[in-house]
Write a structure and sequence with these properties.
two-stranded antiparallel sheet; 13 strands; alpha/beta
């Protein structure tokens, strides 16, 4: 199966739904709100006058939020519809940004630019079959001493609900709708892969990334079925009365 073709078609469809959703709140962003959350803001730190590459950027709200904080941003995504929407939004809010339609691996082959920061977040890694190639994309894209930040959904909550934790060469094949409140009911075929956290960390180490911090968080800034709101505005999931880890974050640096 051509997973890139299948997933691109799914994300092109999803994007047209997402830009109209309250979940993403494009109007709020256009009116000055940021789509970034406290986890990534705290871990990435100041981006003023730094070059930032956002891999798998969807339609660019987080990318452009970094631009509002002073970064010189480049966003990359597989979906041509997402990139088209990102360019349109950047023009509406008059923010300078570069958006490139490409899968992660092809971008690595074509890119010759080096960045201060590479950033990826929230539901990105499951679409990639090979994390070593992903990590090679990151290290190739970083300046010496450059920083990488990954903020990702923790695989453990899916595991306790019956999904696999350890990886397999064979993808998970799903036919499903999207996760926003305005889901039209239309379903798309999608191919994803499971990646335990050890695989993510070891892929980064194998290409010369020095891990500076690894954190697990008992809350998510995004709601999914079964989650409960907490006073801080995030969401938690309890199992036998105990918090389930919902997000993890990694900060690393290119050592040479």
């Amino acid at each position: 199966m051509d997973y890139l073709k299948i997933n691109k078609e799914a994300w092109d469809k999803r994007t047209t739904v997402h830009v109209k959703s309250q979940y993403y709140d494009v109007n709020g962003f256009i009116n000055g709100e940021s789509s970034l959350n406290s986890i990534e803001l705290n871990e990435v730190g100041s981006v003023e006058d730094k070059s930032l590459l956002h891999l798998q950027c969807h339609f660019g709200l987080d990318t452009l939020s970094w631009a509002r904080l002073g970064a010189n941003v480049t966003g990359v995504d597989l979906s041509s519809e997402a990139i088209s929407q990102a360019i349109s939004i950047s023009e509406k809010v008059d923010l300078s940004a570069k958006f490139i339609c490409s899968d992660v691996y092809k971008f690595s082959e074509l890119n010759n630019e080096e960045f201060d920061i590479v950033f990826t977040s929230y539901g990105a890694l499951c679409w990639l079959p090979d994390l070593t190639l992903w990590a090679e994309t990151i290290v190739k894209s970083l300046k010496p001493g450059g920083q990488v930040n990954i903020v990702e959904f923790h695989p453990f909550d899916e595991f306790i609900l019956g999904s696999a934790y350890f990886s397999s060469d064979d993808p998970c094949v799903d036919v499903d709708g999207t996760y926003t409140e305005n889901c039209t009911g239309e379903k798309s075929k999608m191919l994803t892969w499971v990646h335990p956290i050890s695989e993510v960390i070891n892929a980064l180490i194998s290409v010369g990334i020095s891990i500076e911090s690894f954190n697990e968080h008992p809350y998510s800034p995004y709601y999914f079925e079964g989650f409960e709101p907490v006073e801080s505005g995030e969401y938690q999931l309890l199992h036998s009365g105990q918090n389930v880890p919902l997000v993890y974050s990694i900060k690393g640096r290119k050592t040479a």
